[in-house]
């Protein structure tokens, strides 16, 4: 029982425990309602309530020692050690080489062996990692007027089945449809076309110009053309220690030979024939082109899964073919048509099917353009662009000869750009000469 606290004396609290040997450490105690093992007298609750600085165990147990360690760590975190708050001291009142001491040491040895066995088992056991398979309704669009959800599918070129990527896409729950594609290697959505290249294929395609032709075809038929580059990194680059890329040039620092970005002992010098220079020119010519980098086919399958989430499925009926309704003579005309206001990849085929040439398109009225495009706003923008009246700027004659005049009495007309350049030259000529 707790003793009385007199003047100049410290508070002493003695907590009763079951007699030694009356039960095991992990057995519930029913001998004493006020025992530390009971729900009303747990050691953690007693320590947090009394907050002692010195603790004496007449019968040491491993579970009690661990609770005291947790209490000491919590107190140290709450208020660091100060001269006024000394560390918590624990005493064991047992005889040397006694039964109580051996029981405590045996419990410590069992605890240590259990942790060693757990660490060894964790390092050698095979844990099956379940790959999360996304629900099919998340991969494709959910139609409100239909209860049947369309199975996600990917159109794959038959030549790509020599790689393991189509099999990985099938394991992801996608329907792989083999086709002979003339444009791209993978069709993920009606507006997403992927051209897959390895590093060696990328270098050879850039040098031969084939990649430029492939990107031209993808950009003509798809809104989001994608260039996928798969490369295998060396073992030292994917290790856990250190940076992956020692150079600031990124993954291209892994390549050696004539395609090396940074040769040993030399400065960074990217010439016009360099691999990165050609990639930069490719992105400049095709602003909508997206370049994806993947280390392994497994990463590529994850990228395709994320790209297909919430997007429509590709259709075989609307699959474009290289050269369909687009001969060698009208490639530039179609590219020019796509640059006009109101014309996009969604409606340019309607114009091609109903108008033979750009001159015939310029002669169409607003009602005819609305009928062709099936959109009055797009027809208005195109009509305003084709029938915009440009008034040339008349520049006053300054007295000098003008070689652009058709006749001596004709007014001098120049474009605003030339007019601005003339003003700049006139302003420079008006400066006073420098004095030496």
Task: Write a concise keyword list for the protein shown above.
436 residues, alpha/beta, Rossmann fold, DNA polymerase, domain 1, six-stranded mixed β-sheet, 15 helices, 10 strands, disordered N terminus
What percentage of amino acids are in beta strands? 5-15%
- What is the correct CATH architecture of the domain at 153-234 and 273-318? 3-Layer(aba) Sandwich
Shape: elongated
Order of strands across the main sheet: 4-3-5-6-7-8
The main sheet comes to: 6 strands, mixed
Average pLDDT taken over every residue: 73
Oligomer: single chain
Pairing-aware structural class of the strands and helices?
alpha/beta
Number of strands: 10
Q: Which parts are unreliable, with pLDDT below 50 for 5 consecutive residues or more? A: 1-5, 19-34, 235-251, 403-407, 412-432
User: What is the CATH top level name of the domain at 153-234 and 273-318?
Assistant: Alpha Beta
Secondary structure tally, helices: 15
User: What helical percentage do the residues reach?
Assistant: 25-40%
CATH topology description of the domain at 153-234 and 273-318: Rossmann fold
Return the string of H and E elements: HEHEHHEHEEEHHEHEHHHHHHEEH
Gyration radius from CA atoms, angstroms: 40 Å
Give the terminus-to-terminus CA distance: 109 Å
How would you characterize this protein structure?
This protein is an alpha/beta fold and 436 residues long. Among the domains are: 41-92, no CATH class; 153-234 and 273-318, Rossmann fold (3-Layer(aba) Sandwich); 331-387, DNA polymerase, domain 1. The protein has helices at 43-50, 62-78, 99-124, 136-139, 165-171, 199-208, 210-221, 275-285, 297-308, 331-338, 348-354, 358-362, 366-373, 376-386, 416-429; strands spanning 54-57, 89-92, 153-157, 175-179, 186-189, 192-198, 224-230, 290-294, 393-394, 413-414. The longest helix is centred in the first third of the chain and has 26 residues, at 99-124. The termini are far apart. Residues 1-5, 19-34, 235-251, 403-407 and 412-432 have low confidence and may be disordered. One of its GO terms (cellular component) is nucleotide-excision repair factor 1 complex. Residues 1-33, 396-436 are annotated as: Disordered. Its main location: nucleus. Keywords: DNA damage, DNA repair, DNA-binding, Endonuclease, Hydrolase, Nuclease, Nucleus.
């Amino acid at each position: 029982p707790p003793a009385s606290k007199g003047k100049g004396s410290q508070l002493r609290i003695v907590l009763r425990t079951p007699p030694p040997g009356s039960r095991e450490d992990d057995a519930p105690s029913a001998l004493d309602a006020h025992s530390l093992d009971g729900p009303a007298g747990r050691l953690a609750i007693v320590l947090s309530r009394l907050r002692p600085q010195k603790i004496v165990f007449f019968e040491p147990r491993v579970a009690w020692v661990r609770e005291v360690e947790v209490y000491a760590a919590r107190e140290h975190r709450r208020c660091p050690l100060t001269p006024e708050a000394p560390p918590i001291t624990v005493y064991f009142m047992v005889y040397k080489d006694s039964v109580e001491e051996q029981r405590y040491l045996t419990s410590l040895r069992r605890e240590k062996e259990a942790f060693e066995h757990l660490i060894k088992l964790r390092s050698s056991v095979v844990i099956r990692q379940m790959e999360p398979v996304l629900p099919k309704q998340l991969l494709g669009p959910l139609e409100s007027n239909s209860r049947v959800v369309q199975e996600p599918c990917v159109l794959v070129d038959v030549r790509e089945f020599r790689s393991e990527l189509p099999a990985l896409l099938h394991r992801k729950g996608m329907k792989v449809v083999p086709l002979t594609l003339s444009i791209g290697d993978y069709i993920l959505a009606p507006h997403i076309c992927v051209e897959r290249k390895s590093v060696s294929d990328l270098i050879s395609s850039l040098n031969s110009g084939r990649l430029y032709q492939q990107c031209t075809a993808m950009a003509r038929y798809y809104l989001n053309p994608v260039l996928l580059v798969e490369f295998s990194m060396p073992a030292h680059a994917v290790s856990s220690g250190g940076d992956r890329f020692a150079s600031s040039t990124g993954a291209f620092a892994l390549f050696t030979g004539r395609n090396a970005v940074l040769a040993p002992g030399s400065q960074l010098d990217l010439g016009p024939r360099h691999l990165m220079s050609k990639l930069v020119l490719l992105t400049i010519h095709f602003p909508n082109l997206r370049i994806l980098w993947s280390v392994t086919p497994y990463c590529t399958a994850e990228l395709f899964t994320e790209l297909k989430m919430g997007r429509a499925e590709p259709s075989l009926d609307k699959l474009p073919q290289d050269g369909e309704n687009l001969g060698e003579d009208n490639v530039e005309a179609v590219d020019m048509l796509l640059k006009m206001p109101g014309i996009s990849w969604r409606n340019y085929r309607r114009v091609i099917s109903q108008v033979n040439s750009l001159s015939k398109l310029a002669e169409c009225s607003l009602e005819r353009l609305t009928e062709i495009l099936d959109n009055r706003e797009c027809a208005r923008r195109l009509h305003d662009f084709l029938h915009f009246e440009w008034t040339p700027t008349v520049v006053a004659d300054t007295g000098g000869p003008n070689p652009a005049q058709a006749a001596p009495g004709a007014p001098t007309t120049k474009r605003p750009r030339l007019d601005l350049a003339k003003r700049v030259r006139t302003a420079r000529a008006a400066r006073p000469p420098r004095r030496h």
